[in-house]
Amino acid sequence: MDRATLDSLVEARKNRRAVALVTDLATGRQELVAREAVNGVAYADRLAEAFRFDRSGVLATDEGELFLNIFNPPLTLVVVGAVHIAQTLIPMARLAGYDVTVIDPRGAFASQERFPDVTLHADWPDEVLPGLALDARSAMVALTHDPKIDDPALTAAVNSDCFYIGALGSRKTHARRVERLKDSGLSEERIGRIHAPIGLSIGARGPAEIAVSIMAELTQTLRQGDG
Amino acid sequence: MSAPDPSVLDQAAGWLDEGRTVALATVIETWGSAPQPVGSQLAIDSQGNFEGSVSGGCVEGAVVTVALDVMESGAPRVLEFGVADETAWEVGLACGGRIRIYVEPLGGEA
Lengths: 227, 110
Known about the structure:
The structure holds 2 protein chains of 2 kinds. Chain A is of the alpha/beta class. Chain A contains 8 helices and 10 strands. Chain A has a 6-stranded parallel sheet, with helices on both faces. Chain A has a 4-stranded antiparallel sheet with strand order 2-1-4-3, sandwiched between helices. In chain A, helix 3 (84-95) crosses helix 8. The longest helix of chain A has 19 residues, at 206-224. In chain B, a hairpin with a 4-residue loop joins strand 2 and strand 3 (50-52). Chain B has one domain. Chain B has a 5-stranded antiparallel sheet with strand order 3-2-1-5-4, with helices on both faces. The longest helix of chain B has 14 residues, at 60-73. By secondary structure, chain B is an alpha+beta fold. Chain B is globular, with a radius of gyration of 13 Å. Chain B has 3 helices and 5 strands; from the N terminus they run H-E-E-E-H-E-H-E. The chains are: A alpha/beta, B alpha+beta. The A-B interface holds A 1-7, 9-10, 13, 23, 25, 28, 54-58, 67, 69-72, 74, 96-97 and B 1-4, 6, 9-10, 12-13, 16, 24, 26, 28-29, 38-39, 75-76, 78, 100, 102, 104-110.
């Protein structure tokens, strides 16, 4: 890798831009391709998929082998609700490589003392979310049980590109939520993007195990998609 | 995480700034139970110092040796390690996996 390519790569990572370093394994020739420029390359579909699933790998072409090395920006997790489960979920999410942001308009919950080292917004989700740019590397979990807080957050999430949306609450709670969101004009397809009850069904008991089930579902969706 | 560890590239860039000669090794393919995912990287300088990981320790020594050759020749190389390899007794993967590693010189002119 020449110095200019290395510098561009380091710079892209600093600015949270997704890029792929494509190396011709026979000649050593290299090219940096930005995620938004994948349509310009011959193997656009394969590269788009590699970005989506964060899957670097070798691509056999007629001209020889290409190694696609994906450099995606860090994943982000937006936690709506500075609640007890959030306190367990956040350290796990950070270990798994997520930058975490917490939103809760209730100041007593969203205190830096309860949530050290995370970006904390003691405001309503609809005030904060427009500035967060939820993208294909973002996930959101709504944990407050309070429709006044959760519903606007979920509405913003289902209308964004974020790869995972989860909402805490029983089936009954979710059924009522679905009705409210429908009444607000959201399509069933959009609403269907919400994972609820949140987390994989592993019989989790207590905040730590629920956090494990949430992280498992998040990971499954990230790596294998929603289908 | 299959995302490469950014600190390896930062470290490598820092080494180049100090005037060191550097090579970069990247895991490009794995089969079976390989210890490090595709995209994992190891930066090596001409003194044999290294940062990062391509196998969790099993083949790093051999990769460093090849990296020194690559720095000298300037030509990238593709390496393969695994239990089926005849060098398995020396530097094979105890986990039974197989990996391919691309070793390239770093920091030259375009």
